[in-house]
Amino acid sequence: xxxxxxxxxxxxxxxxxxxDGREIQTLHNRLSSELMQDYITNYPTLLSNVVL
Length: 52
Known about the structure:
mainly alpha; 0% strand; Site-specific DNA-methyltransferase (adenine-specific)
C-alpha cells in the first residue's frame, strides 16, 4: 500500500509539472478508487470496532 501511494504521489507531481489537467483528473479518479477499495475491504473491521 505504501509503495502504491508513493507511486501515486510521484505520478501526481510529474503530471503537475507537465501541466496536463486532464491527466490529473484521471489520477484523482484512480486514487479515489484505491481509497474506496480500502474502505470497502476494511469496513467489516471498522464495524467490529464500534461499541454500541
